[in-house]
User: Which sequence fits this backbone?
């Protein structure tokens, strides 16, 4: 057996332990053990494959690299399939050792590392890629969201909703080893405390569940659990938090702190929970409308830039604003005109633009502007992620109603499609149509074949049976794409290109009134049949039976 003193062993010693584990995962070998064990295992593997020969044709090695990668991915998939059900082991194949108490952020990192190797899109010719990926997804979901996989009591479904349809899930648990953890504003870093802000204690629940955002008492910044700064109650260091961690006992992930902890759950009445859910639903409707409007504005702005020949017009506009002293800095190099008389300042700005050709200063200013834009994008991305999570959590707490898929963001819809192995191509209405059809099909199978352990139930109540509070508050004021999303959520057929807003509104109203409309039509038909049979008799007694002019069922 070769030792670490071989040529291969010397190369392995240069790798960091995390890199050694990653290499072992690529080779479908166990990444578990101390540093020496891992190095020796990798050295033996590379020696067996001829990695220590030191010679060979470089071109041949390059040609075989693709095949070697495919073989290692295939071997990794086989290991995943062989250990199906061992969730921590499967995620640890990433080289990052995880446990049942690891935070969702740590679990997600491990999941993404393994997913990059076994995803079906990365292995188009593999026969087991889809199955291995499904096993990986199940391992991540079961560790990150254990409460979703508890056995639910079977319920009878006669096709008719109860008078009070159960749409929400209330979780009741103890607070053993749970803390009301320290939360700080992401901007001013002031501590966020419900008592200081005059908030109800349950506000901590709503924030940590990800269904509501709150305002900082110091700088008035609005933030949620995904953008806030969280600190471990034991070591007082920051950690990444995810709303799915709220009902779990986790560790903060810092090297020297291994103590598990949970999050305190305040008692909140069911009535108050219902009120908050309704408030958040209305906020999500406004958010969906705002995003649709922003999407249209961005499209118009892109069209204007394209019509003007790219970014030339924007540069000219900025230079003109600098000449007029409406902006302080030169748009090329960042030069700032000295303060003085307005006429002198304008003249100085004009003279500077004529001679502004310092390539070094221009490059440095462009870099600075690019960095500022990147920071702004990261902030916007964080806010957008917070809004997406809030909408998704609200959807979950409202019973995962398929009819409310339209309130989720397009990126969230794509993620849900990916989880179920569906195509992620197409616009938002098309994705909702495919996702809704798959969920309805699964729920029908559950009704006919019985419940299944690990199955996450959804509410597939059709539009004519849902409560008024579940529907959009103002369909006439919605955009065409929003109406398409609502129609797709309830499985209503429509023409993507031909149907305008009014057509979509009529189809939604017709589907909503489906039950009562059919009853009215049936009653009218029966009345006409009876009238036809007794037509002669009615004519003879017209003066007696039709004398009441205030009631005539045949009047249109």
Assistant:
């Amino acid at each position: 057996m070769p030792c670490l003193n071989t040529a291969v062993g010397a190369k392995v010693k240069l790798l960091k332990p995390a890199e050694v584990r990653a290499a072992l995962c690529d080779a479908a070998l166990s990444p578990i053990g101390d540093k020496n064990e891992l190095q020796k295992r990798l050295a033996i593997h590379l020696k067996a494959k001829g990695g220590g020969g030191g010679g060979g044709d470089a071109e041949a090695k390059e040609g075989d690299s693709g095949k070697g990668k495919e073989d290692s991915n295939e071997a990794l998939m086989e290991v995943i399939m062989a250990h199906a059900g061992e969730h921590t082991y499967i995620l640890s194949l990433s080289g990052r050792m995880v446990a049942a108490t690891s935070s969702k952020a740590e679990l997600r990192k491990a999941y993404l590392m393994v997913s990059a190797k076994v995803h079906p899109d990365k292995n188009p010719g593999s026969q087991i890629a889809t199955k291995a990926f499904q096993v990986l997804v199940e391992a991540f979901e079961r560790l990150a969201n254990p409460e979703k996989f508890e056995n639910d009591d079977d319920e009878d479904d006669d096709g008719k909703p109860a008078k009070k349809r159960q749409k929400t899930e209330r979780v009741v648990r103890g607070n053993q080893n749970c803390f009301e953890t320290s939360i700080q504003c992401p901007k001013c870093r002031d501590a966020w405390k419900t008592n200081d802000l005059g908030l109800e204690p349950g506000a901590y629940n709503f924030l940590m569940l990800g269904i509501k955002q709150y305002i900082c008492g110091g700088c008035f910044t609005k933030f949620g659990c995904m953008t806030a700064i969280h600190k471990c109650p034991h070591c007082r260091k920051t950690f990444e938090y995810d709303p799915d961690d709220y009902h779990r006992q986790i560790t903060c992930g810092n090297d020297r702190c291994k103590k598990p902890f949970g999050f305190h759950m305040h008692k909140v009445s069911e009535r108050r929970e219902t009120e908050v859910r309704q408030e958040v639903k209305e906020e999500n409707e406004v958010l969906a409308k705002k995003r649709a409007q922003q999407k249209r504005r961005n499209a118009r702005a892109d069209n204007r830039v394209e019509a003007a020949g790219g970014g030339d017009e924007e540069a000219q506009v900025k230079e003109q604003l600098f000449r007029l002293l409406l902006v302080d800095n030169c748009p090329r190099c960042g030069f700032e005109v000295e303060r003085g008389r307005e006429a002198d300042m304008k003249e100085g700005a004009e003279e500077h633009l004529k001679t502004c050709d310092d390539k070094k200063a221009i490059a440095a200013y462009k870099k600075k502007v690019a960095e500022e834009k990147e920071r702004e994008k990261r902030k916007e991305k964080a806010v957008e992620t917070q809004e997406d999570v809030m909408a998704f959590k609200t959807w979950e707490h409202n019973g995962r109603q398929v009819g409310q898929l339209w309130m989720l963001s397009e990126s969230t819809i794509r993620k849900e499609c990916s989880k179920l192995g569906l195509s992620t191509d197409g616009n938002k209405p098309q994705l909702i149509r495919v996702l809704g059809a798959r969920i309805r099909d699964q729920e029908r199978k559950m009704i006919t074949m019985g419940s299944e352990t690990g199955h996450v139930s959804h509410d597939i109540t059709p539009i004519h049976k849902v409560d008024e509070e579940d529907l959009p508050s103002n369909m006439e004021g919605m955009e065409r794409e929003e109406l398409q999303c609502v129609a797709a959520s309830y499985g209503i057929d429509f023409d993507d290109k031909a149907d305008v807003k009014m057509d979509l509104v009529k189809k939604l109203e017709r589907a909503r009134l489906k039950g009562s409309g059919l009853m009215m039509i049936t009653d009218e038909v029966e009345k006409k049949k009876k009238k036809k049979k007794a037509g002669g008799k009615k004519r003879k007694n017209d003066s007696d039976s039709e004398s009441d002019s205030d009631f005539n069922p045949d009047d249109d």
Notes: Residues 337 and 345 are 6 Å apart (CA to CA). Residues 51-65, 151-164, 516-525, 537-556 have pLDDT under 50 and may be disordered. The chain has 19 helices and seven strands.
